[in-house]
Amino acid sequence: MDFESWWLIFVPLLFALGWLAARFDIRQILSETRNLPDSYFRGLNFLLNEEPDRAIDAFVEVAKLDPETTELHFALGSLFRRRGEMERAIRVHQSLLSRADLPVSQREHAQHELAQDYLKAGMLDRAEEAFTVLKETSFGLAALRALIRIYESEHDWTRAIQAVQSLRKLVDEPVPQLVHYYCEQAQAALAAKPPRVAQAQEALKLAERTAQAAQTGSGSAASVRVALIHASIAGSAQQTLVQRACFQKVLEQAPEFAGLVAEELLQNFALTQESADGLALLQEHHNRFASLDLFNVVFRALRAQQGVDVAWGFARQALQAHPSLLGLDRLLEAELAHAAEQQTPLESPIPGADLTLLRRLINQHSQRLDRYVCRSCGFQARRYYWQCPGCNAWETYKPRRMEELE
Predict the structure, then answer these.
(1) Of 143, 148, 177, 262, which is least packed with CB atoms within 10 Å of its CB?
(2) Long-range contacts of 344-350 (CB under 8 A, 24+ apart)
(3) pTM here?
(4) Domain C-terminal end among 272, 298, 326
(5) What is the DSSP string of 235-297?
(6) Model confidence over 253-268: pLDDT tens digits?
(7) Could you tell me the residue range of the domain that residue 335 belongs to?
(8) What is the domain count for the chain?
(9) Domain match, 379 and 353 both
(10) Residues with Cβ < 8 Å from 18, sequence gap 6 or more?
(11) Domain check: are 393 and 359 in the same one?
(12) Which conformational region is residue 373 in: left (phi greater than 0), alpha (psi within -120 to 50 degrees), or beta?
């Protein structure tokens, strides 16, 4: 293509257009900068100088001077909530909701932020009301998840189940704690006076269907809980063999949970005059799946049925295979308690040993190990929980004491 000299007239034209565009942008930036309050720049300066408290005060002043700064309101509200200043966070978000000119999207956002404020402040009734309003909005998914947490805290299992069902209509995701909701309903029915056994059985059927649909394994904590409630119902109806089958199912399918059923299993065998068979079953199980709780039950049963020599022989063998300070402490505790009940001198298998002093010294060091611990938040508890009291997470406790986890 040949070069035409008249094309040169476009060069100054392009420079002129670029100069005009730059002037326009600079003027716009300068205009916006002049419109910003001095408090805004003071706040930025405080942030740069790592003075967050003074920066917050400056930004609050900006929000008061310019009510149109909705994003700044949202940022301040979230910051107050993270800092635990719930009253100030609630006030910020309420002031946003009071504005008649607020767009629908930002109104829903403010409602969601306010609901979170209420939830963190422990105002569950207000949080529930605020999240319920959001169920049909763009924040519906987050609102339903929050409502589930609220219903769990209130132990309102019926509404928790309804919320989970609504959640599943929006998103296809597993909700493993749903099995536990039905189990909670079953236990509440059994605890009523008089017990509502039919209602408990219906709740357990739903729990089993839910576990199957979620493909929960037969050795899971949820399945163990269902089996234990079935055993409780069978025991109250004096169906001894049915109850025994439930306990044996736990031993076979979830052997690490043996410590939770061992005591009741021995009592079940005792009802049919088969205590020795029950003890043999647990002792054989301990040989394959040793645990401190099961060790304690087996040792006490051996002590009662076969005498101190057999019990101590089992204890020595078990502690040699699985050395445990807590196990030794449990052993000495059982011996001392038995001697006190019988009001007889304590027969120590260790010549010249003062078992009372020995147990006292060991107990001082084993106390911190005699706990179940949550894998999610680290909350420690003496008894086993299906739901952690600390973080409210489900199935975060292993049925083993801390010493066994180290």
Answers:
(1) 177
(2) 347/308, 349/308, 349/309, 349/312
(3) 0.77
(4) 272
(5) HHTT-HHHHHHHHHHHHHH-GGGHHHHHHHHHHHHHHTT-HHHHHHHHHHHHHHS--HHHHHH
(6) 999 999 999 999 999 9
(7) 290-368
(8) 3
(9) no
(10) none
(11) no
(12) beta
